[in-house]
Amino acid sequence: MSSRRRRDAPLPASAAGLLRFFEDESRGIKIRPEFVVIAGAALIAIVTILRIIAPI
């Protein structure tokens, strides 16, 4: 075993090096945060309206 450690990218000075930021593009679906918040709020509203209209 080698006593040297290999680092791919330098760590930020904040948070004692616990955070690591990657600038590489990743694969997957790209969704804007605003859409996620609006979709969540719409889902909550729909479920609330359905519970009022047709209580179980």
UniProtKB/TrEMBL annotation:
Main location per the UniProt record: membrane
Residues of the signal peptide: none
A cellular-component GO term for this protein: plasma membrane
Residue intervals passing through the bilayer: 35-54
Top-level taxon: Archaea
Keywords from the UniProt entry: Cell membrane, Membrane, Protein transport, Translocation, Transmembrane, Transmembrane helix, Transport
Keyword Protein transport listed: yes
Coiled-coil regions, chain positions: none
Membrane topology: Single-pass membrane protein
Residues exposed to the Cytoplasmic side: 1-32
One GO term (biological process): protein transport
Complex formation: Component of the protein translocase complex. Heterotrimer consisting of alpha (SecY), beta (SecG) and gamma (SecE) subunits. Can form oligomers of the heterotrimer.
Its biological purpose: Involved in protein export. The function of the beta subunit is unknown, but it may be involved in stabilization of the trimeric complex.
The protein's name: Preprotein translocase subunit SecG
Protein source organism: Caldiarchaeum subterraneum
Organism phylogeny: Archaea, Nitrososphaerota, Candidatus Caldarchaeales, Candidatus Caldarchaeaceae, Candidatus Caldarchaeum
